[in-house]
Sequence to fold (321 residues):
Amino acid sequence: MTKLIDMHRHHWAFDWFPPSHLKEFNWQRAIRTNRTIDEVLERAKQSPVFDSSGEWMLNEMERYNIDFSVILCNDMGLGYGPDEDNQVPIEEIHKKTAEVCAANSDKLAWFCGVDPRRPRSVKFFEECVKNMGAIGLKVYPPHGYQANDPVCFPMYEKAIELDVPVLIHTGGNIWAWPEWVELVARKYPELRIMLGHVNLQAPFESGAYWRGLQAAYGKTNVWLDICDWQVLNAVNEENLEALLKVLRVFFDSMGPERIVWGTDLPMVGSEAVNNTLTWSDIARNLPEWGSKYNINFTNEERDGLCEGAGKAVLSNFNFNF
Fold:
């Protein structure tokens, strides 16, 4: 039976972020609910998404019929100026993530996510892989550097040495354009790269994913990560036919073994839940969804999207299912 691998999800606690990051992502809610930002943040602490134990995450996976998830550690600490950092040391964040994954190795694995501008970042990345169980590297340029910034080169070279892949975030601001990832792919053809958020975190109607496809096209070392499309209108009824046509083009251009499926969970709210249920059902039943709109997908293409592409980019990792 086909297994569904979520190649892009997160796991965190409230104090794993800088205070400014929490305010940035909650100020609109404060305005909408006519409350102060401090009131909103105090309530946000109780949200189930901030569960460092992993229990809520595992329940979420069961709800969405996801067999295995790859957690991407986030290092937001240096993105808000020299006088601010994560409330919890980045080493502790990684340690807690490693512990949850080790305790649930049949369902979870994780990527190191240390900012390359930190002292000892390369050494810490190596320690995560060799001693703590990390199986890849997450690079997050929106906080002040491009993917092709030389500060990242030692990290990429270490990933090549360790023979693990790198997921590079795209979308959010000019630092995170997919064109910078294309330059990395050209410079390091032996580096396995996932182009994260190939939709550039933009609404489906924007067509931003074409930029991601163009940057990756012809690069045999690049995989396209289609996480979070479900919460950016792709599974809205009026967009479903267009979505399946786009996936058909993606498969024809890259091959199903190069398109990795993901969610960008955790998320809350009935709309996000329903959309993610649809998103996972589309992946698991791709031929049936395609037939509704006279778009042909094979079972092999479905299997590539659900698990084959993830296994290909994580070629040295043994999934315990």
